[in-house]
């Protein structure tokens, strides 16, 4: 059973943040879902959604408070170390911040950790380095 359908980020600049991910990973938009409070892009079978803060109320959720720390981290998979390395440079050029440069994890993944322009954690991983 494939359970994961969508991952969403809330952002004051949800359009700018969605365009960061769209352009960095060449993601196709689900245009039928576009609205004044939402953008969605497909990554394989999983949608990455970007919502304006107005969506908190629409969903009955409390708005995230500044300084609460990381609540989510995307992990995006690459086939080669070279592709991952190129993406790191591209992400930084588009406004991401490098948190931890490329390294080998104890479980033998090649990984880099960044923050997108909105401060969300992104992990880039190559599982077969």
UniProtKB/TrEMBL annotation:
Xref: InterPro entries: Glyas_Bleomycin-R_OHBP_Dase, Glyoxalase_6, VOC_core
Ranges in coiled-coil conformation: none
Residue ranges occupied by any VOC domain in the UniProt entry: 3-127
Pfam families: Glyoxalase_6 (PF18029)
PROSITE patterns: VOC
Protein name: VOC domain-containing protein
């Amino acid at each position: 059973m494939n359970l994961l359908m969508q991952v969403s980020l809330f952002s004051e600049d949800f359009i700018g943040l969605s365009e960061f991910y769209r352009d960095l990973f060449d993601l196709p938009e689900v245009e039928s879902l576009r609205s004044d409070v939402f953008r969605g892009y497909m990554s394989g079978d999983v949608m990455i959604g970007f919502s304006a803060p107005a969506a908190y109320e629409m969903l009955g959720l409390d708005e995230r408070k500044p300084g609460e720390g990381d609540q989510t981290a995307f992990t995006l998979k690459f086939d080669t170390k070279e592709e991952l390395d190129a993406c790191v440079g591209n992400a930084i050029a588009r406004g991401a911040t490098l948190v931890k440069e490329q390294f080998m994890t104890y479980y033998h993944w090649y990984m880099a950790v960044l923050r997108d322009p909105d401060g969300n954690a992104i992990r880039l991983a190559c599982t077969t380095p």
